[in-house]
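Structure first, sequence second, as always.
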């Protein structure tokens, strides 16, 4: 039995689909089971509630062999520890109690870098990894750079003004990955549980790109000029605060973006194992262009 958390999220739903396609027995934890696709409901067990709730994970992890772990976003949290470490504590107790052997979690690049202890959301995510690994469970933290799919949040300015915004210089190259590749790696690890111990697996996409590179590729795929606009970090923070996010979360987000601009995501050496297939151009053709066309209609 494999337990999937966040089964309706951008990564979790793709992990769920791959596990079902492989014929695995799956149980999900869902706050709102009505958001699950009907075709999935026919082949899974559902535990309703939050995977930060001790009673919920107690029921969900009984008899489980493996767990896909991803804390949900909480932009209103009073502290980053609440978002990552505190949220994971009930699950860690349940891992021990029920003898869960394998956990695959979503985390971030940066461990061992000079920025690791001042990278906001990344720092908190690494602390969560340490908490989970400390249970003794076989654990693989999938460590990622920024996601290509994050650009979907910027479909309005891309569509309306031919612009996207990022708090980084346009010419700095860094890895970027697609959520579908993250889901594929996660599903592989959950299905083939021959690995042991605690460690990480980076998911770097196929190439390093700058924001200007991405603007050029978007322009070619969308058939119109798209430009990158650098946002000063203080202006970036002001936008997030205006959107109603908590000061702690906003500062954590800003610290993460500052660390990325300082090279946080470039420290991981690229290998055949951590190079994943979806190019930014392919992602733009498959995901971004339909989203932009849908808004334009």
């Amino acid at each position: 039995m494999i337990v999937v958390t966040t089964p309706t999220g951008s990564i979790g739903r793709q992990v769920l689909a791959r596990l079902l396609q492989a014929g695995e027995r799956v149980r999900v934890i869902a706050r709102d089971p009505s958001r699950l696709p009907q075709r999935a409901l026919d082949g899974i067990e559902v535990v309703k509630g939050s995977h930060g709730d001790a009673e919920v994970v107690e029921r969900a992890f009984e008899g489980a062999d493996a767990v896909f772990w991803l804390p949900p976003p909480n932009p209103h949290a009073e502290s980053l520890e609440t978002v990552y470490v505190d949220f994971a504590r009930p699950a860690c107790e349940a891992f021990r109690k029920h003898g869960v052997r394998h956990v695959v979690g979503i985390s971030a690049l940066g461990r061992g870098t000079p920025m690791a202890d001042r990278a906001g959301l990344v720092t908190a995510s690494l602390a969560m990894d340490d908490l989970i690994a400390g249970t003794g469970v076989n654990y693989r933290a999938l460590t990622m750079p920024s996601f290509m799919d994050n650009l979907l949040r910027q479909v309005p300015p891309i569509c309306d003004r031919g612009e996207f915004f990022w708090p980084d210089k346009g010419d700095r190259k860094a890895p970027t990955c697609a959520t579908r590749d993250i889901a594929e790696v996660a599903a592989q690890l959950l299905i083939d549980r021959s690995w042991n111990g605690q460690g990480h697996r980076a998911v770097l996409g196929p190439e390093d790109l700058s924001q200007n590179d991405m603007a050029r590729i978007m322009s070619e795929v969308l058939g119109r000029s798209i430009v990158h606009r650098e946002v000063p970090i203080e202006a970036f923070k002001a936008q997030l605060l205006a959107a109603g996010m908590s000061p702690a979360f906003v500062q954590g987000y800003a610290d993460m973006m500052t660390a990325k601009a300082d090279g946080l995501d470039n420290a991981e050496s690229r290998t055949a194992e951590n190079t994943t297939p979806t190019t930014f151009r392919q992602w733009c053709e498959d995901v971004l262009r339909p989203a932009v066309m849908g808004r334009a209609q």
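Margin note: The domain at 2-145+178-204+265-276 is CATH 3.40.50.720 (Rossmann fold).
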